[in-house]
Amino acid sequence: MKKQNIVGKLLKDYGIVLVLILTVICFGIAKPKFLTVSNFLTILKQTAVVCICGVGMLFVLITGGINLAVGFMMSATGMICAICMVWWGWNPALAILGAFLIMMVIGVIIGMVIAYLHVAPFIVTMAFMNVLKGFSFLVTGGRNISGLPESFCWIGLGEVWFIPVPIILMALALFIGYFILKRMYAGRYFYAIGSNEEAARLSGINVPMVKIATYVISSFYATFAGIVMLGRIKTASPNTGNGYEFDVITACVLGGVSMTGGEGKVYQVLIGSLLIAVLNNGLIMMQVSEYIQIILKGIILLLAVIYDMVQKNQKKKVAISV
Fold this sequence. Notes:
Blueprint: H1 2-30, H2 37-62, H3 70-87, H4 92-117, H5 121-140, H6 150-157, E1 159-160, E2 163-164, H7 165-183, H8 187-195, H9 197-202, H10 207-233, H11 244-255, H12 266-285, H13 290-321
Antiparallel strand pairs: 1-2
């Protein structure tokens, strides 16, 4: 009986890793080119943007919130950096710093509206998604901006000891997220608020400030991801981040992060992001229609959310019976 419980716990915690391995094997059998080293590096580079942004989304989901603005935060980041560097001739470092400051101020505003005015995160972040989308199209008239400095593009296309820079930056983003959640005492506050906000407040946690910090962190990671994406594609487009919020949320939930708050680990974001990248890469290799890929992603997200809710309900029943 004890062995069955251990096996059940392992499957629950790491079952998604098994799914990832089986998916890789299936695509490898269908398309032998899928298993090449160059393709794996491509998958990791494709994983980087979603994974980096996903770490920020992890903080939001743990506290029971959601941030639908991350996709167009990435677009706006690209537009700000491109305008500063190409139109105004700024140094890349200064342009990057400016993008971070602007997006984190937006994160503060989002967090304050949610924390102090008690407006639903879904509504607030959807509103800012449209604001940022409008901003990206307005400042450029819907045109793309190219001609970025090569020193900036190194962020998305460069290598360090044969390791692509986006993969190194992804590892850094994961480490920072892990350190905050697991090695800093304040990391417990995010889980406490997501598990029971009222109990967290009564225990002395400054709930509004933690919520604001959550959306600032999410904005930071979305900006980080936007910079990496801009470095990779070398062109800023007002529509670049469109739909990325869906991929990011799917990656988190698919990895095992709870949509109802209180649960989630950094490694789950990585596994979920890898699975999304593997599916995208494999389906493209098999020449599956882009529209079918979108349908499959929607079904995958729905199934992941249903599984999460079933697990939550089972825990509640066990708690009540005890």
